[in-house]
């Protein structure tokens, strides 16, 4: 299974939704809280080109935010990315 990384904050409702979806699928993921480590925000923006959270990566592939991941899931495209 590829490494899943999510940049997040504690107060973001979309981050909570993304966590829930990933956990429901049994995905172990690395969560990088940019509100606790502001230097990570610069890393997130450099990697994703976006300033909003969550930003989700599967391996080196940028998936986007929660809505993007949920759309992939609805289309049946998320599980293959997760090697499921």
From TrEMBL:
Domain GST N-terminal: 2-84
Pfam family membership, one: Glutaredoxin
Top-rank lineage group of the source organism: Bacteria
GO cellular component, one term: cytoplasm
SUPFAM superfamilies, alphabetized: Thioredoxin-like
Family statement: Belongs to the glutaredoxin family.
Protein name (database record): Glutaredoxin
Gene that encodes the chain: grxC
């Amino acid at each position: 299974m590829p490494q899943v990384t999510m940049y997040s904050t504690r107060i973001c409702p979309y981050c909570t939704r993304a966590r829930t979806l990933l956990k429901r699928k049994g995905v172990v993921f690395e969560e990088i809280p940019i509100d606790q480590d502001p230097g990570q925000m610069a890393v997130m923006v450099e990697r994703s080109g976006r300033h909003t959270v969550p930003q989700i990566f599967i391996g080196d592939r940028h998936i986007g935010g929660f809505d993007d991941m949920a759309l992939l899931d609805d289309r049946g495209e998320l599980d293959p990315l997760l090697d499921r």
